[in-house]
Amino acid sequence: MSTQTTIDPQAIASAAAAQEAAALRKALASAPRPPRPSALQTALAFGWRGMLKVKHVPEQLLDVTITPVMFVVMFTYLFGGAIAGSPGAYLDYILPGILVMSILFTTVYSGVALNTDLTKGVIDRFRSLPIWRPAPLVGALLGDSVRYLIGGTVIVVVGLALGFRPDAGPTGVLAAMALVIVFAFGLSWVFTTIGLILRSPSAVMNAGFMGIFPLTFLSNVFVDPETLPAGLREFVDVNPISILTTASRGLMHGNPDGTDILIVLATAAALTAIFAPLTTRLYRRA
Amino acid sequence: MTTQAPLAIEATGLVKSFGETRAVDGVDLAVRSGTVYGVLGPNGAGKTTTIRMLATLLRPDAGSARVLGHDIVRDAENVRELVSLTGQLASVDEDLSGHENLVLLGLLLGLRRAAAKERAGELLAAFGLTDAAGKLVKHYSGGMRRRLDIAASIVVTPQLMFLDEPTTGLDPRSRNQVWDIIRTLVAEGTTILLCTQYLEEADQLADRIAVIDRGTVIAEGTPAELKASVGSGALHVRLLDPEQRGEAAQILERELGSAHLEPDPSALSAPCSDADRAAEAVSTLGRAGVRIGGFSLGQPSLDEVFLALTGHTAEDQNDDEQAGDLQEERAA
Fold first, then answer.
1. Would A3 be classed as within a structural domain?
2. Which residues in chain B are contacts of A20 at CB distance < 8 A?
């Protein structure tokens, strides 16, 4: 590595390279600075990014959709007769709960995606831009809502195909889905917080499912808590996932319980109030 | 320094600690506008932490800095308007295509969708990536990713660019391409702060260099000044047969006082500024039967500068980097 052998880069640059240099000079010259975008514009740009990810990385959506679909099919025919007397009756019972499960599973990916950005270094680029600081987080929520809608729709369609007949019709189903999505927004802040604390995307995924999986099963998604032993039953009754499931059942079957719905909305608000600022703070220091 | 171009970066006493470790321990920098300023040091020396503070990603624990006239803490928003950062890990989204990455950046910088698309196409062409425009970045080669990364940094032409190890892990051809891009950027008036652990890179591109080790600047100057500060010059000898290097080193030590083995197994050097003595030493080698492929008398290489300044070579602390690369691969 002696320094006296200086090679003139211009002398060895090929014609193609020279052409590219000319194109680069032109590209550098023709870039007037546009006016600064609004907070909404930047959040929408990040929302668009989230949707592109649904398109380019469909595995993530499949993962969280296939498991609930399998549960619907297996549980309905395997346990339907034993638990509810007939598969049809059980389907009416579990489908709203499976909808809750499928959308809540998807929230874990909010944390996984954020951690991926962090470990891959792309967060550094976003943070070095002159944009509204929470834009990447808020935009990601917009992208996530598309996932929730797709995942939820798949479950409802599978349910309808198997014979699920909601008494409240399409309005009830939409209302239930809206309620679950609102709760999912609140819960996703928990996972974005975890996503900024743990070291790798797979650690976030493991931690996330280690939490959400038992919480979903120790609820009234699959069984009526009446049959559960004391202690467990008390836990299931206060589990927010149970309350959310009861509320969506009510909305779908035409007997909504206002108190449950209020508790769900309040829980979502509380989760957001605690974990959204926490996420934003961690993000600033990431 | 007062009469020259205004300073693009002016840092005094920057300090940043992580737990017990003082990653940056009082760094001063003065970078003139329109130049390439090299920050040279081994991994873990504090280069990236310094860059992250200057790019407003980290708050310094102590000290202050002005970037293009704006304070990096109080006036961070204005700094972000004028600079762009190309991080050590390529800061592009792997799950999007090259074109989508550039459109996203365009939108975030305030371009309308049509203008952002047009700009993306223009940049992809300028960086030789038109054919890969629709391909997901995770399928890009290292060199393509780097070029996209730099393209993403100039969607809106910045006044100052931070480049953190832009050629680490690249093959020589891709490295030369990136160097050409950097030269063009500077020729068009962009100021560049270039962090590198490659001495050759700093030597090739930088107008001035700060050598940084364990969080402090241990030397600063033009490449020529740095070399001059270490010694007047050196005789470089390349052997036809690497087996003979030990023997050759002994002879040079006898003739010129000391000899240094280069990373290349057939190359060695010895301090010497006098042409006659160099000629004498070379003919002694020839008489002793050492077969010589070539020799030259010149300034010491930056490798030697680093060794002289720090007492260890720049490659000493590379374990961290390799671990980092592995982690990156696993994540991919």
1. no
2. 126-128
Shared-domain flag, residues B185 and B291: no
B26: left (phi over 0), alpha (psi -120 to 50) or beta: left
What would the pLDDT profile of A211-237 be if each residue is shown by its tens digit?
A: 999 999 999 998 889 889 988 999 999
Number of domains in chain B: 2
The DSSP 8-state label assigned to residue B274 in this structure reads -
Is residue A8 in some structural domain?
Answer: no
Count Cβ atoms below 10 Å from residue A18 Cβ, excluding itself: 12
Predicted local distance difference test score (pLDDT) of residue B300 = 67
Mean pLDDT, all residues of chain B: 85
Residue B210 scores a pLDDT above 90: yes
Q: Cβ of B241 under 8 Å from any chain A Cβ?
A: no
Cβ pair B92, B145 in contact under 8 A? yes
For residue A200, give its domain range. 57-285
Residues B76 and B196 in one domain: yes
Residue B125 included in any domain: no
Please report, for the domain that includes residue B246, its CATH number. Answer: 3.30.70.920
Residue B120, domain member (yes or no)? no
How many degrees, rounded to 5, is the angle at CA A195 between CA A193 and CA A198? 110
Most confident of A8-12, A169-173, B91-95, B313-317: A169-173
Question: Which chain B residues are Cβ-neighbours of A57 within 8 angstroms?
Answer: 95
Compute the distance between CA of residue B111 and CA of residue B127 in angstroms, rounded to an integer. Answer: 20
Which residues, in sequence order, are CB contacts of B81 under 8 Å at separation 6+?
A36, A130
| Cα A281 to chain centroid, rounded | 20
CA dist A166 and B153 (Å) reads 53
Which residues of A are less than 8 Å from B136 in CB distance? 56
Burial of B3 (0-12, 13-18, 19+ CB in 10 A): exposed
Q: Which of A2, A23, A53 sits opposite B296 (nearest CB)?
A: A2
User: Cα-atom radius of gyration of chain B, to the nearest Å?
Assistant: 22
Domain for residue B75, yes or no? yes
CA distance A214 to A210: 7
> In chain B, which residues have their Cβ closer than 8 Å to the Cβ of A5?
296
Query: By the CB < 8 Å criterion, does B160 face chain A?
Result: no
Sequence-distant (6+) residues with CB within 8 A of B293 are B238, B239, B240, B266
Domain span at residue B261 reads 232-299
Taking the CA of residue B33 and the nearest CA in chain A, the distance in Å comes to: 17
B213 lies in a domain?
yes
Number of structural domains chain A divides into = 1
Residues B218 and B237 in one domain: no
Domain boundary among B227, B260, B290: B227
- Distance, C-alpha A63 to centroid of its chain: 12
Is pTM beyond 0.95 here? no
Judge whether A167 is closer than 8 Å to chain B, CB to CB.
Answer: no
Residue B64 is part of a domain; what is its CATH number? 3.40.50.300
Percentages of chain A per state (helix, strand, coil), in multiples of 5: 80, 0, 20
